[in-house]
Amino acid sequence: MIPEIIILAMIAAFLGMRLYSVLGRRAEHEEEVIPNRFERGDEAGAANTAPQAVTEAPQSDRALAGFPPAIERGLRDISSADRRFKLLPFLEGARGAYEMVLEAFWRGDKEELRELCDDDVYEGFAGAIDEREAAGQSLDNKLIRVEDTTVHSAMLDGKVARIAVRFVSDIASVLRDKDGNVIAGSLDDAVESRDIWTFSRDVTSQDPAWLLDETDIG
Prior knowledge:
The structure is a single chain. This protein is about 35% helix and about 30% strand. It has about 220 residues and is α+β, with helices and mostly antiparallel strands. β3 (about 160-175) and β4 form a beta hairpin. The two termini are about 15 Å apart.
């Protein structure tokens, strides 16, 4: 599966349109720490402490209300299966992951992408990066702003929670050749991008990390 965001990136570059720590390392990139993000637990602490039972109560009905019935039912199922799940911190983490995946792809950082994506999504990103590098090209894109982050769908599939998030953002895109010359695009013109990214997590796992496992245009 080739992620649709890759297609968006290349279209934006050629046509001038548009185009948490990282799982476990986001603190290197941001000053503010948001609790309960898409992050791995404290590995040092985990090495010296036996896993503890989760005692948090499910989040209130009010926190999950106001969605269409199918989404609300999915969120409630996830919240019941994983009492650590809280919607607002999840959405904050999803937005952070969205920004970091885009930036890692644009600069060709496969190591960072490997930590944020499942195997299929990673292979799609990595393949596009390889093609770009073989052509001697580079992306000089800039995420201007993320205007909206909303839940598009949610479901508990057995023990796997899957939440699709719609991002509405403004992205400026430039494609450069091996000499740094602009082939297409402009950093002065940002175009609205609508993307739906699905994140998944095994709710029985002690690892709280969510992975990007699907992308689409929304």
